[in-house]
Each structure stands twice: as structure tokens, then as C-alpha cells.
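Cross-posting from the modeling subforum.

Setting up a comparison between two proteins and wanted a second pair of eyes on the formatting. Protein 1 (sequence, then C-alpha cells):
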Amino acid sequence: MFAKKNLALALCLLMAGCAGSENKPQAQAVVMPAPLVSQAWLDDYEPRLREAIKGSHFELERRDNLLVVTAPVQGSFNPDRPHMLLPITLGPISRVAKLVEHDKNVAVLVLGHADSSGAAASNRELSHERARAFTAIFRLSGLRQDRLLVKGLGSDMPRADNGSAAGRALNRRVEILLTRQDSLKALLAQYSQPAAIPAVAQASPAAKTAKSKPVTGKQVVAAEQAN
């Protein structure tokens, strides 16, 4: 008799526990922030990037946990064909692409920027086309979508006053952001919300214009093979 009572009590408690668990709200999934790039990685890559763009009109800066290479539109693109790269640009960008090509932990986000002249939609489209021109060089080096993303921001992120010709020239640029591969989508998400776009540091004076002929597809491939 005593054993039967204990068994009945155990069954009762078990059933009550199960019923209680069914009524409990499901735990919410916790979204962990993207891993940060280590200072050791930044210290290692920064001098290598500086060497890759040495002698060019590109700029390099640390921005929080990123390394950012900035290419001004002036001197990088054909003035008569605004989304066509000049040959002078191929050397430095190909060397940057080669640098990250074999490091599977590194990813690249290419951002195109424009000044505020003209229609906003046209500026965004042009900035995207210019960013894609840089992205093409990285694709030739073997980077795929899981390590390479592109976005045109138009005039959303000025780094100088659009009221002057010099300021507008500074705002027309392409930025190459290097980060960890597992941080790439989170990084892109930051630039997909205009209200939350990170602040941009003031740039150095505009580079001198380099006169050259527009680049062709064959020249892009030749430059990639040479590097």
C-alpha cells in the first residue's frame, strides 16, 4: 500500500511538472554581437595595407575595429565615363585584393559615396556602380559573396561640406572596409540604416588628379595576373 501511494504521488508530481513546463513561455533566442577584430590583427594588417597602396592616391585609416582604404573618385575614375576605373587605380587595388585573397578569415565591404549635387537616386546609383568597379577586382582574386559585399550610399555619408568644390571632391569616394569574415553581414547592416550610419572622420586633402586612359576588361585581367 505504501509503495502504491508513493508511486501515485510520483506520477502526480511528474504530470504537474510537465503541465507547468507546457505553460512556460519559450526562451527567446539571444543574438550575440559580431566578434570584434583583434588589435593583433589590426597591427599585423595595417603596415601590409600601407605597403600595398604605397605611392598611390589612396588613403588608409583605422576606424574602430576596421581598416579602411579610401580611393577618391578624382584620379580613380574617367571624368568622361564616371563609373570606369583609370589604369592608375588597378595596381594598388589589385595588391590589396591579393593581400586578402588567401586569408579566409578576412572579408571586404566596398562602399560607394557621392556628393549632394544631382538627384539622390542618381547619386546612389552612381556610387553603387563605382563601388562595383572596385568589387570586380576583388572577384578576379577569388573573393566570393560570403567574403565580399558592396553598397552604394549616395550622399548619405559626407565627410566634408558640400558647399564647396573641394568638399564635394572629398565626398566623392569609394571606401574598402576590411573586417573579419564572420562580422561582414553585421557590418553591412550598420550601413543599411541611414539613421545609424557610423560617423566618418575628416579626410586628408584631396589627391591630385592623375591623367590616364580608361581601363578595359583586358587591362583589369592583365593587372590582376601581374600582381
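Protein 2 (same layout):
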Amino acid sequence: MFQPQKHTLVWPTKSDKGEPIAHVHYQPLTMGQHRTLSEQHKNNDTQLLRACISASTGLSETEIKSLVTPDYTSIQNQVLELMNATASQLIEGEFDSAAPTLLIPIQSDSGQQKTQYTLKPPTVATTDLMDTHANEWERTIFISSSCTGFSQSELERLSLSDWNQLQERLIDFLQQPAAYFHPKT
């Protein structure tokens, strides 16, 4: 299970309430959080990054602006690393790509906790159906749901690392020949 990471500030600051902040904890964003923030800050990468840092750390915009630049750079780098990592990069031990373990378990639509899922390659009929969707996002959600059995709302609850892992494998399914998937001996 993923444990939140911590950065000890070299230059402690104060919270909006005047309390000292000496440590900042990082939590992975969910795919849904990131999608919402991306839509809100479409044309401003700096604001998007700061919104992602705020969502990951719980720091307000004012608290982020009170950080000294070296501490901010450390936090920014760690948040970006979490946002871009795949679950297999963060999970210790062997990773099963056919039945991946979730870095951060989610609650299913039925209320059960999901700690892993079964990933199956799409059929040609499924990829034909995927191509009928109007835009890239709809195609991505359709193929992700078809290959995992997750609903759109369950997909939105996946951590970005779990989402990145899923997308990496789906790209393999859509682009690689069968020989790519044979076990290596």
C-alpha cells in the first residue's frame, strides 16, 4: 500500500491560520481530480501545476506562494514525479500486468473495495466501437472501461499512477503484435 511521502521544509513557513508548517505531505491525485483541474486551467500551465500541487499537498494558494523557491521546487518535483509515475514504478515487489494491484485501492460503485483488477486485451469489435466515439477522451474512457470492467466513475477514482499504468498497457494492446505479449524465457 502506498504511504504518503513527506518533504521537510528547509525554510518553514506559516499556514493561512498562522500555524507553523515544517513538513508537507504528498498524496497522489486521482485521474478525476487531474481531469477537472486540467479543464479549469486549460490555457495556463503554471496555474494547473499550482492547482495540482495544492490538491496533492493540501496547501492553499497563499501557503504555496509563501514557500521559498528551493522548497517549492522540491515539492513541485515530487508532485510531478507522482503524477507521471506508473503504479509498477511505485509498488514494491513483482507487478502482475494481467491482474494489476492498485497502488491506492478504490471503492467500487457497489461499495466494495477494489485492490486489483483484471486487464484483458480488446477485441477488434471493441476497437471498432471505440473509434465511433466523438473525441479522444470518450475513446479513452470507452477502451479503459471495456478492458477493465471499471465504470467511468471508478476510473476517475484511480490514482494517476494507476491510471498511467493502465494507459501504458492499453497502448501496448492497441499497437503491439501478439509476439510482444509472449512470456520472456
